[in-house]
Amino acid sequence: MIVEKNKFAAIVTECDYENDTDKIRELIGDCRVVVVRNNNPVPPETLVSFYKTIGEVVSQNTKVKGNVAGHGELIKVRKNGLFSGEEDGELEWHSAGMNRKGHDDVVVMYMHQNAESGGNTFFSDSQTAFTDLDDDTKDILRNIKSKIVTYNAKLKLEQMYYKRIFSDEQTMMEFKDIDGQNSFEKQTPRKDLVTAHPINNKEGLYFPWTVIRGFSGISKDAQHNLYYKLKNHTQDEKYVYEHEWNNYDICFSDQHHSLHKREAYTGDRELWRAGIWYRDEEVKEKADETIEYRDHQAGSYDEWSCESLIK
After folding, report:
1. What Å distances lie between residue 144 and 92, 94, 191, 216, 308, CA to CA?
2. pLDDT digits over 119-131, tens only?
3. What is the CATH number of the domain that holds 261?
4. CA-to-CA distance for 133 and 234, rounded, in angstroms?
5. d(CA 3, CA 248)
6. For the chain, how many structural domains are there in total?
7. Which residues constitute the domain of residue 159?
8. pLDDT band at 301 (very low <50, low <70, confident <90, very high)
9. Inter-residue contact 41 to 119 (CB < 8 Å)
10. Could you give the CA distance from residue 283 to residue 229 in angstroms, rounded to a whole number?
11. Which of 296, 100, 76 is nearest to 181 (CA)?
12. Quick one: how far is CA 43 from the chain centroid?
């Protein structure tokens, strides 16, 4: 296996799917993004077998539209499907967990058919971004939680951020995690802002700023200032890698200390997505969200932008 670095991302060639598993796992923790280059198409069954050497792979049922050749582990990402984004294909910064408790440790993307133009994916590095903060700021961040947007199931899909993720309400309500729980039902109104990575145990930011409305335990002005400080810091060029896809690339994307987004594109781009979980305790864990709190807080939100989250 040959590994080269592009910023923080690891670019891998000559990968042995059977014998390089431990190296790939280690690279995901240390680099946040691992791209495995392939010269030829990789069959769906080979992808699934490879992914299962990394961890448990989520398999969606047939009610979730877009599986690949009957493999529920692989879901097509394309326009008019899951994770379709805006009309031009752009999809804002996000991660697998966002506003829920328990989530994929890794999202894997395989480029089945590249776009005619555009469609690059951007990845952030919130582990290094946290390391580079001053010690006083780190201490503050370790002791506060993010206030996360949650949605009542009664809300129409059109009113929600997730209209860019799910193609229809049935898919949203049927999309499940490895523990069999519906992802939508695992929402939580608070999440730790600083977490330890399960692979290298290093601290990093869990900062999906597109669904954050503030922080607990500090004043409103302090929340506003901290939100934009962290957003600007984590979006610095140093902490963002732009991946220009080749057909048959496999991209392992860490979901603990990284976000990703997709730029607009033209053409019939088709990517196959899978979710991987590392740990048995998370497979068995049941969400302990406070449903009463969530349902009380969730309401008919007007469409909101990331820039208007904190007033």
Report:
1. 25, 21, 9, 6, 21
2. 999 999 999 999 9
3. 3.60.130.10
4. 10
5. 17
6. 1
7. 2-301
8. very low
9. no
10. 34
11. 100
12. 24
